[in-house]
Design goal:
The protein is of the alpha/beta class and 329 residues long. It is built from ten helices and seven strands.
């Protein structure tokens, strides 16, 4: 990144996990180790810069798969040490949110103004966060069990799609009747989410129907996908509506891999229009995990002198300390 402009954004996909139906943590870490140098070299050459042009290295230190994070953190520390420049550790969730401060990151091609509500829907996280400043964020609601992306991937696997299944469910949904099947919404009060019961209900529903009718999935695949997608979208809209009413904030930003789902985007656009809200949706390549979101967060911390010791311990689960109530901005 040069300030808030992307010079290169290299993403290496680890296809090996497909055959296991989900990410295998040890394999993921090993592949990070094998491919990181190539990814960094490629991003430097694509950006048409030299190593010595780099002023700061930023990397994520959590939440996420701890072994993969450790590989990235160790690599980044060595790179920063070798170039004699600072390293700035970045929170993965904050990065998903702050991606909207990259130039032309969202479909509005504009930056959201504080305060705004952020809905983070990714493979590992589901949260509604009130954002009052770049680093002044407060979690209003979280999933109490499974994350949304993880839920979608497990349901997709049951249907017979390969990992990750979110995009495939979206593709099949296009041709389906989203009212054919209805699934009970989780009964969680307030702004928290729960997807475990929802997931189990759908998995059991598919199992029972298939027992009675072996070709149930094949016959109904489009309608099953469309109905699941609609249920998910309804759950999200209901929660964001509660957050809007509770906070009186009418700016909503979406983040994370699931926010690239067009049906979800469409329903949020309809909601936003009806309720006089501004909606910010990241472009697909910036919704799913990417290096640019880590870079912009590092850049903002660098700009506002938010340096930390380079001995911070990486973490696998969401950590409150990285959402402080105070900000230097
Ligand atoms: O943000 P992300 O790239 O990684 C994490 O931080 O976890 O999100 C990955 C998740 C996966 O569960 C994937 O199935 C889901 O995002 N996803 C989608 C779509 N594209 C990716 N879910 C629904 N519809 C999509 N189009
Ligand atoms: Zn992510």
């Amino acid at each position: 990144m040069r300030c808030n402009e992307i010079l290169s954004n290299i993403v290496i996909h680890q296809h090996v996990h497909k055959k296991y139906g989900g990410v295998v943590p040890e394999l993921s870490a090993r592949l990070h180790d094998e491919e990181l140098l190539e990814a960094v070299n490629k991003s430097i050459s694509t950006a048409k810069i030299k190593q010595n042009d780099i002023d700061v290295v930023s990397c994520t230190i959590g939440p996420g798969l701890i072994n993969s994070i450790l590989v990235g953190y160790s690599f980044s520390k060595s790179l920063a040490m070798g170039l004699d420049i600072p390293i700035i550790p970045v929170d993965h969730i904050q990065a998903h949110i702050l991606v909207h401060f990259i130039k032309n990151a969202n479909f509005n091609n504009s930056f959201p103004k504080f305060p705004f509500l952020s809905l983070v829907i990714s493979g590992g996280h589901t949260q509604i966060i009130k954002v009052d400043g770049f680093f002044k964020m407060k979690v209003l609601g979280s999933t109490l069990d499974d994350a949304l992306g993880e839920t979608i991937d497990k349901i997709a696997r049951k249907i017979g799609f390969s990992y990750p299944g979110g995009e495939t469910i979206e593709m099949y949904s296009k041709y389906g009747n989203n009212k054919k099947f209805t699934f009970p919404k989780p009964l969680i009060k307030g702004l928290d989410f729960s997807f475990s019961g929802f997931k189990t209900h759908i998995l059991k529903f598919i199992e029972e129907k298939t027992k009675k009718e072996p070709f149930f999935i094949k016959k109904n695949i489009y309608d099953i996908c469309a109905s699941i997608q609609k249920s998910i979208s309804d759950i999200l809209i209901e929660k964001i509506n509660m957050a809007v009413l509770k906070t009186n904030i009418n700016k909503i930003i979406l983040s994370g891999g699931v926010s690239s789902n067009k049906e979800i985007i469409n329903n949020f656009s309809i909601y936003a229009k009806k309720n006089n809200c501004d909606l910010f949706v990241p472009k697909k390549c910036l919704a799913t995990d990417n290096g640019a979101m880590i870079a912009i967060t590092g850049f903002l911390k660098y700009k506002y002198n938010m340096f930390s010791s380079n001995n911070i311990a990486p973490y696998s689960k969401y950590k409150k300390i990285y959402f402080p109530n105070l900000t230097t901005v």
